[in-house]
Design brief:
By secondary structure, the chain is of the alpha/beta class. The protein has eleven helices and twelve strands.
Length: 301
């Protein structure tokens, strides 16, 4: 991960606090990692991939580029064919103790909530992880309450999981990970299948978690969402992942085209504003319709 910061923005509330600087030692890191499934060629080859603590990171790439595989390697669900996984600088041992330590720090939420939820009620599901950690009952209950409140689904506590809507199931699955109080949440396409309102609410939840110090990694196909939400971005391009500040990487048209991604809406707007002399070179471009409205009211554009 290259160093640098980018000014994040809450969707509707103006600039959010600056993220912490990129620390020298990543929270979790793949070094020279390769992975091939039994039946196929290598999906990832000799990949270096660092997740800096306390920041938000969007992972982008075309279908089949290896996003899910990379997230599973980072969270210990898959083991590199070669190379290694490090947690806070230390190599992860894939034994019980090593994986317990990793999962206490890094929690993966898979794309389909039905692959994650398994208990009869929301409360039972969300309490499973903390109970499994051997926490006292009071602590488990408090964590469930906090996680459901953070996700805005406190009223669903006693509901059977199979009666929830898709968006509610996505939130319940995320609550289960949040209840583990991990340092890093790794989310595989968390906004997929949510309506626009549901996406906005989820981003607010993720911003709140990040602002409280949780590292949040999200795989997504949505370049617009990635550019306005993430501090950092990683693009799975043919030569391997490219990482850097989202505001720099996600306006690199050549890179995006090579990775099979389109240019974000706001980058196209910025190019048009510059072409018409309305935005100075180096001046930050608006990244959302709300930022564009604020920019035009102050710039008189
Ligand atoms: N269990 C598996 N067994 C064999 N091959 C697999 C398996 N899971 C994924 N693959 C292959 O690995 C490659 C990368 O898949 P992966 O799911 O990591 O990509 P992705 O970037 O997450 O894709 P998408 O955007 O479609 O979700 C694909 O070619 C896929 O066919």
């Amino acid at each position: 991960m290259t160093t640098g910061t980018s000014p994040g923005a809450h969707p509707d509330q103006g600039p959010r606090p600056e993220p912490p600087p990129v620390p020298a030692v990543p929270l979790v890191e793949l070094v020279g990692a390769s992975y091939a499934y039994d039946e196929g060629p290598a999906v990832l080859r000799d990949v270096d991939f660092a997740v800096p603590a306390g920041r938000s990171l969007a992972l982008l790439g075309r279908n089949g580029s290896g996003k899910t595989t990379l997230l599973r390697l980072l969270s210990g669900g898959l083991r590199c064919s070669s190379g290694r996984l490090r947690l806070a600088g230390d190599p992860v041992a894939y034994d019980r103790a090593g994986l317990t330590r990793l999962r206490g720090t890094v929690q993966l939420v898979v794309q389909d909530p039905d692959d994650q939820l398994f208990a009869a009620s929301v409360e039972q599901d969300v309490s499973f992880g903390p109970m499994n950690q051997g926490l006292p009952e009071d602590e488990v209950r408090a964590r469930v309450t906090d996680a459901l409140t953070a996700l805005g689904i406190a009223e669903l506590r006693d509901r059977p999981t199979h009666l929830l809507s898709y968006g509610q199931r996505k939130r319940a699955a995320l609550a289960g990970a949040v209840a583990m109080r991990p340092r890093a949440l790794i989310l595989d396409e968390p906004t997929a299948g949510l309506d626009p309102h549901g996406q906005e609410r989820l981003l607010e939840v993720l911003d709140g978690l990040r602002d409280a110090g949780t590292t949040v990694v999200m795989a997504t196909h949505d370049v617009d969402l990635a550019l306005r939400w993430a501090d950092d971005a990683a693009v799975l391009a043919p030569g391997g992942p490219r990482t850097g500040p989202a505001a720099e990487l996600l306006v690199d048209r050549e890179l995006l085209a090579a990775a099979g991604l389109r240019t974000p809406w706001s980058a196209a707007v910025a190019a048009a504003l510059r072409a018409h002399g309305l935005l100075a070179a180096g001046e930050a471009a608006p990244r959302t319709p709300e930022e564009l409205a604020r920019w035009s009211s102050t710039a008189g554009g």
